[in-house]
Design goal:
The chain is α+β, with helices and mostly antiparallel strands.
Amino acid sequence: MDALDPIESVNTFIGTKDEGNTFPGASMPFGKAHSSPIGSHYAGYRYDDQQIRGFGHFFLSGAGCWEQGGLVPILPVTQLPTSFDHRRYATGYSHDGEIGKPGYYKVKLDRDITVECTATTRSGVERYTWGQNVQGTLLVNVGQANDKEPVSASSIKVVDDRTITGTVETQAFCGGRPYLTHFTTRFDRPFQAFGTWTPAGPKPGQRESAGGAGLRGAWVTFTPGPVTACTALSQVDEQGAANNLAAETTGKSFDDIRNEAQDAWRRELCCIEIETDDWDERAVFYTALYHVLLQPLTGSDADGRYRGFDNQVHQADGWTYYEYYSLWDTYRAHNQLLALIRTQRSKDIARSVLAIHEQGGWLPRWAYANQETNCMTGDPVTPFLVDLWRFGHLKGFEEQAYRALLQNVDGIPPESSRFQGRSGNPNYLKNGFVQYDKRFPKKGQDTDPHHGASATLEYALADATLAIMAEALGHKEDAERLRKRGLNHRNLWDHSVTDRGFTGFPRPKLGNGAWLNPFTPQGPEGFHEGTAWQYQWLAQHDVPGLITALGGKAAAEARLDDFFAYADLLQDPARTVREKWVVGPYDYYNQFRYNPNNEPDLHAPWMYALIGKPEKTSVVVRAAQTLFVNGPAGVTGNDDLGTMSAWYVFSALGMYPAVPGTGEFVSHAPRYTKAVVHLENGKDIVIKAEAADTTKTQVVERIRSGWRNKVKDRIELAQLQSGTTLEVDLHTVSN
């Protein structure tokens, strides 16, 4: 084993406990299909599960809502079960010998059955091995998926002695609408017997089963020996699934596909090299990078067809359509990391989001397959696309993107549209804030007035970000009014509110302009998945205004010190973050500290640097990094489609994109003596910190490079993209 092989450095079990919601099975980078075990958890597999229900073929990595796939689970057995409910026929397994690496998963089930998993971009692949002289049977379940993933209709057909096809209609994420997936499964050996089941029970020799919700599937039985099954997915049609299978698996053995998958991952993961002798350090870093590179998912079939947001089939010629966008999460770090290290994919991602606008009429917020779920609040698509423009990934589409963004920030989708957009815009544009109104009608899980205060702050950040793009494109009048709207967060600052000895907090306003009363900055009212304590820092685009509101730089520093329990961090960082910061992954309220489990305050450690105290940023970031460990509980909170992992990668490298749209990275102490980021343009970013020692609390003393920064604690995107060497001198803080 090569200790420096990034494949061997990844531990796909990281995040499979404590609601990290990652999956340990096999995938290709940005793959459409997967192969991974399903247990009793809604995200698929939880490390503590005692049984495996099957090996499913579609998952989301780190998402927080219930409906997360697990489609077409297959389970190997030695005889037909008495019940075709996978909760009843699930089998025990052992962690002994279990392997989770990029592109490969292996586990030993009860009754001496071994399962190995790999994947192509659009197919999940398993090799099933039973004991010697055992006639093996595979249960192909289309009526069930992950726990809490309802299947509203399904069909399955035994086509010939090697092929099964079918459809699964499942509920989209976070209360979205049902959507249809086609699949084709092909085995490398002919089966000797088969049958299907319905809610009424098994029917040996019958080739088809179709209908609404309920137990449904097929079984196939083989003569003794291993069997490889390849399952391809398509949201387009049956032919799409068949084409995907043929294009990616024809003539290839399981080992061929596994080697191709692992080679693909090796190429992806080699884009960043780190120097460390600590095996756990390598595992945490490269697993985070692996989680970043899982999504968004490839949406177009092998022939370029994809199902758009108008429910019509479209063609992506010469580019790849990507889908599944958790924008409220990913605009904060994941998007910028991909934009830096995966430029061609980021260009296609930008084009895909514009295609959603072309076909659906509006820009998305949480886009699942070919529908908008209206999950979460604010306006994340604006900083998301503006950053892609800033990184140079919208060339040729700048004005198209700008017009779509302007429609979004200035308007509201009509009632007939399934998009909700900035539903708080009428009051925001008229009065400068989104009203807090829990009765406001919604089209999906969330709507902005239900969280009016945080929505106001998100809108203001988005407006200020778009103002940067407007100015650069020559839209001067737009830029000026958007800059002014970027200051709307000030409209919610109530200087009369006091908490923990600090005065002044953002406070929700009602539709008539009155303050919400009663109100506490630690409470849930008006803020989405956070409190006024966490959201007060969501004004990084207006640091002067925030400092003024807080009472000056000294007062701002004192409030940050309290927010992070800074004095305690200096004494015992690892203990402090776990005892004073971390709460349950879904406990967002009744707190006044930094919440490293969730997105609203992910940038807050860099607020120290933005107010002129960069050394404290390094202290806080080093402390937060202790939450990421080499074990199943090694991700803090939901990984949210790679967002938390992207946060870790940036934090470990010593730079973070704290202010969207600026192309600036705020520096802090890196973790490694040397790291090299290989860009797709052939340039390298080299980060050297010879004194780096993660056992100590360290801050940046000086950064040397050949680049003249406008501000010494900022690293500019142009510098990174042109290739640079940053020599970072570190100073150890005495506790």
